[in-house]
Design a protein that fits this description.
By secondary structure, the chain is an alpha+beta fold. It contains five helices and seven strands; from the N terminus they run βαββαβαββαβα.
């Protein structure tokens, strides 16, 4: 059920990010979520897109170093404390979270949270058993 995330290593210089987004745009790739972390010399860009296979191909062809990582997607209702409840489920099940980021849907009152853990199946089962809706790649493709 995991969502496929593109991780792209980007040189930390002016115009580097726009070059990537322009390339994706020219190929009708729609961004669903984005996270970027930077260091002095490079950044790590994490993307959820509507067509990860095409995005991976065109970015590799453009010379970018890309890794596909499967991550857990979980739907969190727009209520105080709901993210904390989901994180507590992972903690209570001894699931270490490496990172997370969130994005909003366009029409519903909830956010999607992307979570990187060591074992996606275990995290998905724990969250689903606690009543959270797991977001699939098909769900992302419909956004």
């Amino acid at each position: 059920m995991a969502i496929k995330q593109l991780t792209i290593f980007v040189e930390n210089k002016q115009g580097a990010l726009v070059a990537i987004t322009d390339t994706l745009s020219q190929h009708n790739i729609n961004l669903r979520a984005l996270s970027i972390a930077e260091t002095q010399d490079f950044g790590i860009l994490r993307l959820i897109v509507n067509d990860e296979a095409t995005a991976e191909t065109i970015l590799k062809d453009a010379g970018y170093l890309i890794k596909i990582t499967e991550v857990v997607g979980v739907k969190i209702s727009d209520e105080p404390g709901r993210l904390s409840e989901a994180l507590r489920v992972l903690n209570d099940n001894n699931i270490n979270m490496e990172y997370l980021y969130a994005f909003m849907s366009r029409t519903e009152k909830h956010a999607y949270v992307v979570i990187r853990v060591e074992d996606n199946a275990v995290a998905e089962a724990a969250l689903a058993n606690a009543g959270f809706k797991i977001v699939t790649q098909a769900d992302v493709d419909k956004l």
